[in-house]
Design brief:
By secondary structure, the protein is mainly alpha-helical. It contains ten helices and three strands. It has a three-stranded mixed sheet with strand order 2-1-3. Helix 2 packs parallel to helix 8 and helix 3 runs parallel beside helix 6.
Length: about 280
């Protein structure tokens, strides 16, 4: 990947403490998005057992946080447009959850064990009236999702609007189009060709319920970013954060690089302990 796009995978970072600065290489936001995408939506995404792995929830949540952070750092777009782009993503995920996923499994939404998506427990660091319910999101101007299954004429009309073009550009530059939208499209095809065609009804319902829960996690994280960007738009005066700032670490005066260095005697004792085991 680095050979194809030099400079995209690694970024030069600085670590500063008590007037001392150290330079180091760190993985870029793009690299971390790519890694989480491949870990989650890799070659085995069509396997039913893949989505029972406990780490899947954490990886999907992290992926949504990363594309949200990438969106936050995009220049040339207002906070309002970023909020609208994330709200359109919520709508796309909700449509995939309620319509596209049951359809590729050849199931009606009512055939799942529950009549609707299982609610995800509210994060402890949020208030009860947080943004867990997408209905509580600020109501930006409604616009069809650029990748939602709409008619060709309607899609062309949306793409021609200034707002529609901006949302499409944000999705592309923040890796939402590649890592989320395209991945879900491929997932739909693989699930449809796999368990959708050959699986028993109980297997289909299992996959449906598992993915309803996973999509609810993705929706909740996206809602947080949509609401945060809307609040920044309302407050006014807050500039866009540059991605380069993410790679500059200020530790203040609470750390001392000298304290982090092990003495020769400590290293020797540690080595002896390792050799003994």
């Amino acid at each position: 990947w680095e050979r194809e796009k030099p400079g995209i995978e690694w970024k030069r970072a600085t670590l500063t403490c008590r007037g001392m600065t150290a330079a180091l290489w760190v993985g870029s936001v793009d690299a971390q998005i790519h890694e989480q995408k491949m870990l989650t939506f890799g070659p085995r995404m069509g396997a039913v057992e893949m989505w029972t792995i406990p780490k899947v929830e954490k990886r999907l949540k992290r992926l949504m946080q990363l594309v949200g952070t990438k969106t936050m750092c995009l220049p040339s777009f207002s906070w309002k447009l970023k909020s609208i782009a994330m709200t359109r993503l919520v709508e796309y995920l909700q449509n995939f959850q309620s319509t596209e996923l049951p359809r590729c499994l050849l199931l009606n939404p009512s055939e799942s064990k529950e009549s609707g998506p299982k609610p995800v427990s509210e994060p402890k660091n949020l208030s009860k009236d947080g943004v867990q319910n997408p209905a509580k999101l600020p109501p930006p101007t409604m616009m069809r999702s650029m990748s939602a299954p709409v008619g060709a004429k309607a899609a062309m009309a949306d793409a021609e609007t200034e707002e529609g073009q901006a949302v499409k550009a944000i999705w592309e530059r923040s890796c939402i189009e590649d890592s989320i939208i395209q991945s879900l499209r491929v997932l739909k095809i693989r699930i449809g060709d796999g368990v959708g065609k050959t699986g028993e009804n109980h297997q289909k319902r299992l996959v449906l319920n598992q993915w309803k829960d996973l999509l609810e996690i993705m929706i909740n994280v996206t809602c947080l970013y949509a609401s945060a960007f809307d609040e920044l738009a309302r407050a006014k005066g807050f500039r866009s954060i540059e991605e380069s700032e993410l790679y500059s670490f200020e530790l203040g005066d609470n750390w001392d690089f000298g304290e982090l260095l092990m003495s020769d005697s400590t290293v020797a004792e540690t080595k002896q302990g390792v050799d003994a085991h």
